[in-house]
Amino acid sequence: MAHIPYTIFRSGTFYYNRRVPKHAVEAYGQFIRQALSQDPDEAAAYAERLSNVLEASWVNPSCVKPVDVAAVVESFKPRSVLLSEMSEEYLSLRRIDETPPRSALATFISLAGNRDVAGYTREDAKLFVCHLLKRGNKTATIRRRINSLSAILNYAYSELDIDKRNPFTRLLIQGEGEDSLKRGTFTNDQLKQGYDKALSSGSTVKLLMPLLGETGCRLAEIVGLKLEDIDLQEDLIHIRPNSARRLKTPNSTRTLPLVGYAKLAIEQVIQRSEREWLFPRYIKGGTCKATHASNALNKWLKRDFEGMTAHCLRHTMRDRLRALECPNDLIDQIGGWRTVGGVGVSYGRGYAVEQVREWLQRACL
């Protein structure tokens, strides 16, 4: 067995064993002896790290700063933390809709158990995918669930300093993408019909249709608006992160003009709003519950518009702008899409608000 500096081996355990320099004897005593580990590699690593800490504490002969040796060694040892505990910590730090990750966690824990985060294996991850496939989940849904769990484990490994490959990394899903359906788009007649019905319905949920359809925004961007984000004098909304919801990409922060049906709809919603939020019913516990709004809106849209959803409105706006030969980078700016046209398009401040207003007015119904 190779010798490990400053250690002795007794009764199956390695101990740190070191004579203390004269100038530090008053703080530490003549010798330091502390149990390290039964594993030689682990003991060698702990001994080296403890030596560094001790030498730093007595490097100045005139000012020795003693440390709690037992506590220092204990801090070297990896913590055993349950997945549920790390998940709560992760979700408390991230301003995201908690429903998808909590759904993924509940399913995964029911299959693999609530264990130490370092104990999960590739087989656990494969079991999770197999289970979701058998339940009939779409592969896109499964991929989102994998991404949620992967993000939590990445956070745990980083915080706990665990050197381990994430079991969800590069996990393949059989037939991924083959079950996807291309999202439909609304006709102009369908949009007008829906907008008119929304404005006369008295329903704030239905008013989301013209707000989404005439701005191209993501649903959470509208549902999570604060009243201070809305400027009715200039007919503008400021899409920016806040305490209830973050934005999907850096490009998502933007200012959009309100034209046509969007302006009429937001005027109605504001009259029914209270305190600081445009849609207070979907702000619960300081978090934007966009999924709840999506479910409520989609129930109506799917019934009246041949299975269309709220996200189809976003696709429709892109098609409408494309049909007008609007520049691609301006379309990306309006929708807050990540631009893929090369480095140059990301330079500068982008298009002015009045230029954006001009194109939205051209697309206005």
UniProtKB/TrEMBL annotation:
PROSITE patterns noted in UniProt: CB, TYR_RECOMBINASE
Every Core-binding (CB) domain range: 81-157
Top-level division of the source organism's lineage: Bacteria
Matching SUPFAM superfamilies: DNA breaking-rejoining enzymes
Gene3D superfamilies per UniProt: Intergrase catalytic core (1.10.443.10)
InterPro entries (alphabetical): CB, DNA_brk_join_enz, Integrase-like_cat_sf, Integrase_catalytic, Phage_Integrase
Keywords from the named record: DNA integration, DNA recombination, DNA-binding
Annotated Tyr recombinase domain residues: 181-361
The family this protein is said to belong to: Belongs to the 'phage' integrase family.
Protein name: Tyrosine-type recombinase/integrase
